[in-house]
């Protein structure tokens, strides 16, 4: 993380100090940008963050931007500090963020240049041969566009189950061809990388059509996924669940008559929930059952939020 930087341009006695100059973080996570500011006299009436100007060249507050609606929070303290929090980060949020404040005095408008550069990235697992002489592979948990800020530690998953080790960015695989692998950064375990089949194309895998869904109370929602499993196993059943221990959602009284399962095509499954309530807000996961006691859960699942409005 970069050192604090104070920039004073054009107006003596005015400045904005950003806690960091650049941040790289994960898609779907939450970020907080912070700064402090000083001015000669008067009272500050307006404070906001922005990334672009309107047609007249005036900075537009993020809270007024449609793309940030419901995801931006401002916090101002009594010591001239100001925080910007952005939730559910998207790749399109990658930009330079600047702070602006307005005071009740002549030329009392100031923007802190150069701002904070935010980069939003995804995780992926890269697979490379460990040795030309051995049938092992090296897995690397990497980002697609920038290096994560700080010194993150990692969690690895085999067939959807987390490992207590390793916590490093790389993991050497000596396991059978049917196992699947993914990774996450500790503290953001709900943001897995896509699953890879390290030793071949036949492995356990669940891919959700959408990872986050926001719906209205009383409406109907479709939650769908596609999946694969080793051909040596024969599919015997599947269901959706929300609890830590997989139990078929359709067996719960509160979902009675409101849940329907559809296997649309081969290896594709959809759950339909009708007459949604705020209590239905949860993380929904798909569970696959096969012969030879084969069981696989697609983790993490789909976050469903009922707005109640």
UniProtKB/TrEMBL annotation:
Gene3D superfamilies the UniProt entry points to: Immunoglobulins (2.60.40.10)
Domain Ig-like: 114-185
InterPro entries (alphabetical): Ig-like_dom, Ig-like_dom_sf, Ig-like_fold, Ig_CD22, Ig_sub, Ig_V-set
Protein name per Swiss-Prot or TrEMBL: Ig-like domain-containing protein
Taxonomic path: Eukaryota, Metazoa, Chordata, Craniata, Vertebrata
